[in-house]
Amino acid sequence: MTETQLRPAPREVRSPEAPAAVLSTVVKRFRNAKGEEFTAVDGLDLRIRRGEVVAFLGPNGAGKTTTIDMLLGLTRADSGHVELFGQAPQQAVRAGRVAAVLQSGGLLPDLTVEATVRMLGSLHPGADIEHVMARAGITPLRHRRVAECSGGEQQRLRFAVALLSDPDFLVLDEPTAGMDVVARREFWATVREDAERGMTVMFATHYMEEADQFADRVVMIDRGRVVADGSASSIRAAMTGRTVSALISPRDAQAVAASAAVRSCVVRGERHYFDSTDSDALLRVLVTQTSATEIEVAPRSLEEAFMAITHQGRDPQEASR
């Protein structure tokens, strides 16, 4: 079956240079149970290029879900502009150009896996049922009831359903929740293949290693605004300092931790980990003035960068919520 046959209807041909998604000074407000107004998205600006795999990260309450809902046409911005492929989100969704894999819901527990895909595939004339099941790795599960599937298997079923319309833009919300390591790697290999064919992918995850390994670009938001935007390596590099670890005696470790090149020190098992502002100076101290062995130097992790960036300007009580 050809790519043309897979699509539900002819689609507008647009320049490949045109962005897949644009959000311009978008604001969205809600009222809480007390009737108090709060701003979930506060002047957010974001452009997503075609074929990108974008990790969309933020702490709880940062505005991720609200932003995703606006991209999917599930809610409208109070002000600002949101478009997908030059259209309003609702139009793009109706045209089958946008699909989503959400973390929960949307499945009937008494249906089999195959019956679920076939039922929803009937909404997309020309959809290749066998192809999407194979792409999602659920062909061996075809006769299993949804209720009997694990959480990770249900996520793969949702992925198959999302592929039925052969979308141009795929939104993933915690897509690998419940998957084991092998299934998670297979899932991302499939997503990467789709992205190489031109699909744009935006995913929200709490697995920082997924954002680090699989995203072309990382966008961090906090309090409804973009606070970091770039490759995972560039975001890590923007955070000063490195972590230096070693096997070292407690006495030597205490002396090293007191030096100006060390911000803090923690012990994990037999190793001491020094948060260093000057790793070169710290290495000289460890090599020449201590009996430290198995010394390792590591750049900041994406998780450390995420914590530092999204907790800037928060008081301790606010940061803990």
TrEMBL record:
One of its GO terms (biological process) is response to antibiotic. PANTHER family: ABC TRANSPORTER ATP-BINDING PROTEIN. GO terms for molecular function: ATP binding; ATP hydrolysis activity. It comes from the Bacteria. SUPFAM superfamilies: P-loop containing nucleoside triphosphate hydrolases (SSF52540). This is ABC transporter ATP-binding protein. It is found in: Cell membrane. GO terms for cellular component: plasma membrane. Keywords: Antibiotic resistance, ATP-binding, Nucleotide-binding, Transport. The keyword Transcription does not apply. The lineage of its organism: Bacteria, Bacillati, Actinomycetota, Actinomycetes, Kitasatosporales. It comes from Streptomyces spiralis. It is a peripheral membrane protein. Its main location: membrane. InterPro entries: AAA+_ATPase (IPR003593), ABC_transporter-like_ATP-bd (IPR003439), ABC_transporter-like_CS (IPR017871), ABC_transporter_ATP-binding (IPR050763), P-loop_NTPase (IPR027417). SMART domains: AAA (SM00382). Residues 21-248 form the ABC transporter domain.
